[in-house]
Design a protein that fits this description.
Shape: globular
Catalytic activity: Thiol-dependent hydrolysis of ester, thioester, amide, peptide and isopeptide bonds formed by the C-terminal Gly of ubiquitin (a 76-residue protein attached to proteins as an intracellular targeting signal)
Helix content: 25-40%
GO molecular function: cysteine-type deubiquitinase activity; zinc ion binding
Largest sheet: 8 strands, mixed
Keywords: Autophagy, Cytoplasm, Hydrolase, Isopeptide bond, Metal-binding, Phosphoprotein, Protease, Repeat, Thiol protease, Ubl conjugation, Ubl conjugation pathway, Zinc, Zinc-finger
Family: Belongs to the peptidase C19 family.
Protein name: Ubiquitin carboxyl-terminal hydrolase
């Protein structure tokens, strides 16, 4: 009653011993079977005055057969003395007021997500008098597409003229270009129904004029005007009509294994996670993360110690929330098989105790997404971007001497060669994901793809159902070959020629990680800058050998490029300096921007990352993104400094030393994000006149740098990092890696359904105890046909030599 934190039965004693708080409010909800009526069925459902807690009701028991009763009491520790509420006679007035306020308070999650809670819909004022144009429009049963763009999801049928147009974000979390709203503003036609939601029971209708979802009592008549018989319509879980899923081709059906009877799995490690509204990306990633023994040991194995030493407010502690989530997934307490029918009947006679089925990661999501412009929203996100965000938090919140994220970290050797002088430069960087390009030109079914595209265009023009989907089949070997091939370096400056020249770059593994995470780069941008997804099938191997991609370093006969930085020309005239700086500020490597944007990062954040890292390439800019993802203005547009700011900000951007002789904090943060210590980053930048690329080379060429004891650095470290004493144990010898053979076995993959990262659904498949298991939010089942060819992110474990 002092901190207003909630605890389960198994944790209340720990909190009492730790804090000395002795007064707790105990809340309990009883679920009982209703007494049958005279007709043999349950009595009609009525409002229950015995419910006063703002708690969720189990969907399994939310029927007319059960009734609920809430109980509240004060418990005084350590004697467990109980006082039932309300009790005005025994309790002081202040305690009574506090109890009443708690019992009547709304759930904080309902306050945070008001849009995700359904309200009773009202009939639209336009429904009765709606005028429908007799324009001969007939809506086909499938193959819908926005009439103003190429989107095929989140489509709305205007009930006045039959136009099919895309919606906006706020309709259901899916992406859209707002053409339905634009059409309303142009015509004033008020009502639209969402295609894919029409069933014999109704449909989702939105009123643009009333600016809210509404009921249309005449929806059957309004739909029949355009040739839609709603009695023949039926939707599935994902908004797909039964008529559309006869061929098991769509990725929605294949990935979720629709049409196959799947056996539910229960017990430790088979616990589902509730979808909180477009949070499937989080669910899929966390299921994969906690299938890895290093993460299990770090958080669940250390759970008592983490809980004992957690701060007074554990809701704001990363390690506590990770341990809590891991325990929920691995303990088996929230994944129990249903009781036998005889036992259920016996229990129902007294009090029904519902079985726990899955966990709701509300507190975990609220904490891990706090302050992040994307993850804190209810929109769909990129699972790869969330994975990197999670790894960043793990790095910043060490749980002990062993950092579980070490299993993903590896070093990449980049060989850059000047095409004119033939001289080379070798550099190394830290990475956590192997990104494989999709080699579309290597498709083995090109003739089928061409024929399908012709039939699809003909069907669209004739407004007929689309032909059966033909998916491009790409050999995995072609993707691996594309990864290893040299790529052109944009705007390459050759230190050998002291001028710009053509350059090529190849990447190899300087170390192989314990767990290899492979991302298939399916997401890209069209010519109109609209994100799109490559719908391809890749024959991902169960056993992967990338030993041939091991880096070899400088080879005999190769000559290194001189260690000379590009010259910086600053005009004498202040006006010219401002114009020069303005031009340089806008000189952003668009190819690097596109590489980052294809990973799923916001476009403006990618531009800032490339700008602030001096066009040194997508890899360096990627590390900048990881270090700045949680900043409030992360996705805000790049702000070019004004004239008065040119002198100071320009010097920092160009790598000049500040007045206090300290390197720019931006560059320090980039190096720290790669796994190096702060004092090492500052030392390297000082030794190379704040040249970021040369500083990284300096670090790798000085494995045992001289220890500097700078009191000012120590002070900064302690102020900027509350866990400085723990981080110091890792040493400054460089990033921690777990090198070994480059042979791996597949144990999991995350798949995405939908046209872009801004919409769709994620599902995770994991191999456990010799068989594949599908994790589809709360649903956990034995997989019968794991779609390994349609995955987005793959998880491989190293095979011991």
């Amino acid at each position: 009653m002092n901190t207003f934190l909630g605890f389960g039965r198994e944790h209340i004693e720990r909190h009492y011993r730790k804090t000395g708080q002795c007064v707790y409010l105990h809340l309990k909800r009883h679920v009982t079977q209703k007494v049958p009526g005279a007709s043999g069925g349950a009595l009609p459902k009525r409002r229950n005055a015995k419910l006063f807690l703002d708690l969720e009701i189990s969907s399994d028991l939310n029927s007319d057969d059960f009734e609920y009763e809430d109980e509240a009491k004060l418990v005084i520790f350590p004697d467990h003395y109980e006082i039932s509420l309300p009790n005005i006679e025994e309790l002081p007035a202040l305690v009574t007021i506090a109890c009443d306020a708690l019992l009547s308070a709304k759930s904080p999650y309902r306050k945070q997500e008001p849009d995700s809670w359904e309200e009773e819909l009202q009939a639209s004022k336009h429904a009765k008098t709606l005028v429908q144009l007799d324009n001969g429009v007939r809506i086909p049963p499938s193959g819908w597409k926005c009439s103003k763009c190429d989107l095929r999801e989140n489509l709305w049928l205007n009930l006045t003229d039959g136009s099919v147009l895309c919606g906006k974000w706020f309709f259901d979390g899916s992406g859209g270009n707002g053409h339905a709203m634009e059409h309303y503003k142009e015509t004033g036609y008020p009502l639209a129904v969402k295609l894919g939601t029409i069933t014999p029971d109704g449909a989702d209708v939105y009123s643009f004029d009333e600016e809210e979802p509404v009921l249309d009592p005449h929806i059957a008549k309004h739909l029949a005007h355009f040739g839609i018989d709603m009695l023949q319509m039926q939707v599935t879980e994902n908004g797909l009509r039964d008529n559309d899923i006869k061929p098991r081709v769509s990725e929605w059906e294949v990935i979720q294994e629709a049409g196959v009877k799947l056996k539910p799995m229960y017990g430790p490690g088979y616990t589902g996670m509730k979808n909180l509204g477009n949070s499937c990306y989080l669910n899929a990633v966390m299921q994969a993360i906690f299938s890895i023994p290093e993460f299990q040991r770090a958080y669940v194995g250390n759970l008592p110690r983490i809980f004992d030493y957690s701060p007074l407010d554990p809701t704001q502690d990363f390690n506590t929330q990770m341990a809590k989530l891991g325990h929920g997934l691995l303990s088996g307490q929230y994944s129990k098989p249903p009781m036998k029918s005889e036992l259920i009947e016996q229990v129902m006679k007294e009090e029904h105790k519902p079985q726990h089925n899955g966990i709701s990661p509300r507190m975990f999501k609220a904490f891990i997404s706090k302050g992040h412009p994307e993850f804190s929203s209810n929109r769909q996100q990129d699972a790869q971007e969330f994975f990197l965000h999670l790894i960043n938090l793990v790095e910043r919140n060490p749980v002990g001497s062993e950092n579980p994220s070490d299993v993903f970290r590896f070093l990449v050797e980049e060989r850059t060669q000047c095409c004119q002088s033939r001289k080379v430069r070798y550099t190394e960087r830290v990475d956590y994901i192997m990104q494989l390009p999709v080699a579309m030109e290597a498709a083995t079914n090109k003739d089928e793809l061409i024929a399908y595209e012709l039939k699809r265009r003909e069907a669209e023009a004739a407004r007929r159902p689309l032909p059966e989907l033909v998916r491009a089949k790409i050999p995995f070997s072609a993707c691996l070959q594309a990864f290893s091939e040299p790529s052109n370096v944009e705007d390459f400056w050759s230190s050998a020629l002291q001028a710009k020249s053509a350059g090529v770059k190849t990447s190899r593994f300087a170390s192989f990680p314990e767990y290899l995470v492979v991302q298939i780069k399916k997401f890209t941008f069209g010519l109109d800058w609209i994100p799109k997804k490559l719908d391809v099938s890749i024959d991902m191997p169960d056993f992967l050998d990338i030993s041939h991609l091991r880096a070899r370093g400088l080879q005999p006969g190769e000559e290194e490029l001189p260690d000379i930085a590009p010259p910086i020309v600053i005009p004498d005239d202040p006006k010219d300096r401002m114009m020069n700086h303005f031009v340089e500020s806008l000189d952003i490597d668009e190819s690097s921007v596109m590489q980052l944007a294809e990973m799923g990062f916001p476009l403006e954040a990618c531009r800032k990352a490339v700008y602030y890292t001096g066009n040194l390439g997508a890899e360096v800019a990627f590390n900048w993104i990881i270090a700045h993802m949680e900043e409030p203005d992360f996705a805000e547009p790049l702000a070019i400094p004004a004239f008065g700011e040119v002198a100071s900000s320009g010097a920092a951007a160009l790598g000049a030393v500040g007045l206090d002789n300290q390197p720019p904090e931006e560059m320090v943060a980039i190096i720290i994000s790669m796994g190096f210590q702060r004092n090492l980053a500052i030392q390297a930048l000082k030794a190379t006149s704040n040249n970021l690329e040369r500083a990284l080379e300096w670090i790798f060429s000085h494995p045992d740098p001289e220890e500097e004891s700078d009191p000012s650095l120590d002070t900064v470290d302690m102020e900027n990092n509350a866990n400085a004493n723990i981080l110091a144990e890792t040493g400054s010898e460089g990033p921690r890696i777990k090198d070994g053979p480059g042979r791996y076995e597949l144990f999991g993959f995350i798949s995405h359904m939908g046209t872009s990262t801004m919409s769709g659904h994620y599902v995770c498949h994991l191999r456990k105890e010799g068989r594949w298991v599908i994790y589809n939010d709360l649903r956990v089942c034995a997989s019968e046909r794991p779609p390994k060819d349609l995955g987005y992110i793959y998880f491989y474990h190293r095979i011991p030599s």
